[in-house]
Amino acid sequence: MNQNNIDTDLLIIGAGPVGLFTVFEAGLLKMRCHLVDALPIAGGQCAEIYPKKPIYDIPGYPSILAGELIDNLLAQIEPFKPTFTLGERIESFEKLENGSFVVKSSRGTEIKAKAIAIAAGLGCFEPRKPVLENLEKFEDKGVDYIIRDPEVYRNKKVVIAGGGDSALDWTIFLSDIAEKVTLVHRSSSFRGALDSAEKVANLAKKGKVNLLTDTEALQLVGNGVLNGIVLKHKTEGEIKMDADNFIPLFGLSPKLGPLADWGLNIDKNAIDVNTEDYSTNIPGIYAIGDINSYPGKLKLILCGFHEGTLAVQSAFKYMFPDKKLSFKYTTVQGVHGFE
Q: What letters, b where the CB count within 10 A reaches 16 and e where it falls short, cover 45-74?
């Protein structure tokens, strides 16, 4: 849905998993929701960047693909009929005398809302790139910064660089898909989960992956399309190998974008919140998920679900101070009883 003028109860900035689940919790309180996201599809990074990546810390699911989680969340909120503005970024906002808000998007869409929940994840982001002279030459021609579809790498020679969770997880996942997977890390220790690092080490012992620590990429080789890479080991010097794909996974560089100019209290590219209800310093605006900051913060989808749940309870009281908040368990009322 892309309209020029929209009127809603709760505007949710960000249509990732936390934003989507917040629609469900708001729907239980009969609050209308509209979501805005700069990406062209709902689901945030889970849908756009790594839909095939398994997630292991969603309650009730020993393992679920990121894209499947988004599909389930969309099905869960469908009874509440949320509306969407996709492919547009919120640029400006104005708080009216009655406490409500008017915001405008990058394409001129105007949205009136009684309250705002910012669930923008990492905000605007771009991949951190290694310093390689000819890197841009091979972008989309063998060099990828995110993995959208693992099948692209089936029977290919893949070199992954990085030492965090993403590099470890994709090394494990692609070990059953690619012809050969090499994980390159400039240190001998990893920043990712210990269990994942141990799995990669075991795969290396079995010959399923090639693990090169104390090593970093030196040069990419190819004539228009990547076909090789030169690595540099700390003590052994240069190592040359064939490669169809080079995937540096050094994380994302987050930026708040226009949100940084809203007058919100900011701490290191995150929005300070009150953990009682995840409200910001501007009454009526809440920040949930990876975009917020507070003592003890954990950047987990699970925590974002909790934050969104408490935020909508507070948002209801902000929007409707004269109404009595009567929350009932869905096991008693059923979801359709809240519509």
A: bbbbbbbebbbeebeeeeebbbbbbbeebb
